[in-house]
């Protein structure tokens, strides 16, 4: 039986080796600048926050500082709110939503919470508008001991000293049409598995932790974002991306078991946001604002409870 090809790299049914990974890498092109878009924005916030370089990616001739911003009035007795964006570099609103939160909303939490924000965890992928890092590894399946992804390992080292003080963690993501046209086929090809077409949810949704769900917290985020953009409905099977919808716009994943960024701490409140920038009903402005609103709603709920 001949297995039809579905991706231009590799042999169907066979996982990639070094040659296929090199071929994949040769196809990656820089589309935008981490320095211009992100580093300069972070530098512009330096008067209000402490900017810390928590690692550096040296990928061939490219070198990327991994930057985080933290409250200038950091007080050890206060709870920590952790915000991460750009774990998947192509998910633009995660990066710019985190920066928007810092620019427009963060001052409201002075003296109430310590903020630690990593706006762009994966700068190499940000520039290439890609999901993976240079080694064709998904950082958001790599938050575990001995991580194969430098991006993930660096963030885990940053957070480890304050793990037990993080009250809330908001990890900002997008679901895009390119998930179905490029990234899921590439994943199947890389792993030598058949590609099974799926659907793309039209709207915003969140992912709770199935190991320690906080349904009221998730609904507070959904309610706030619904004022900005539409919430993704369940599909005909009552699911979103193959997972049962447990409440409007909410699904559950075993975050730590899957090596997902939102599972890197023991925070009581944690969520992964997902916006849909390719929807005809949403604009980039709405998506960035939805992310910032989600961050505020998550921190507000956590501090109130």
From TrEMBL:
Pfam families: AstE_AspA_cat. This is M14 family metallocarboxypeptidase. PROSITE patterns: PEPTIDASE_M14 (PS52035). Keywords: Carboxypeptidase, Hydrolase, Metal-binding, Protease, Zinc. InterPro entries: AstE_AspA_cat, Peptidase_M14. It comes from Agrilutibacter terrestris. It comes from the Bacteria. Belongs to the peptidase M14 family. Its cofactor is Zn(2+). Residues 30-305 form the Peptidase M14 domain. One of its GO terms (molecular function) is zinc ion binding. GO terms for biological process: proteolysis.
